[in-house]
Design goal:
Radius of gyration: 21 Å
Strand content: 5-15%
Helix content: 10-25%
Number of domains: 1
Low-confidence stretches: none
Number of helices: 1
CATH class: Alpha Beta
CATH architecture: 2-Layer Sandwich
CATH topology: 30s Ribosomal Protein S19, Chain A
Distance between the termini: 69 Å
Mean pLDDT: 86
Length: 97
């Protein structure tokens, strides 16, 4: 791990230690979307930047080995509506009045 990643893990450890035994730790913001989740991060809250906002994710044991960026989607999924509603009106028959 590089120095940026080690520093972030240390911040997460410090936040977990500062929280009470039954409290959730404060989320720590990061832009490190390509960081692999390691076992020391379990139980921490991370705020991962997606290009617009920080999305908060709680790290659990089954997330180990994944990237932080997998929990902060960078695009809005396409929702397809009815045909002819958008700019292409040729896809649906509209009778003349």
């Amino acid at each position: 791990m590089g120095p940026k990643y080690r520093a972030y893990v240390n911040k997460l450890k410090k936040a977990k230690a500062a929280a009470g035994p039954l409290d959730r730790p404060e989320p720590i913001k990061t832009h490190l979307r390509n960081m692999v989740i390691v076992p020391e991060m379990i139980g921490a809250q991370v705020a991962v930047y997606n290009g617009k906002v920080f999305n908060i994710a709680m790290i659990t044991a089954d997330m180990v080995g994944m990237f932080l960026g997998e929990f902060s989607i960078t695009y809005r999924p396409v929702r397809h509506g009815r045909p002819g509603i958008g700019s292409n009106n040729a896809s649906r028959f509209i009778p003349l009045k």
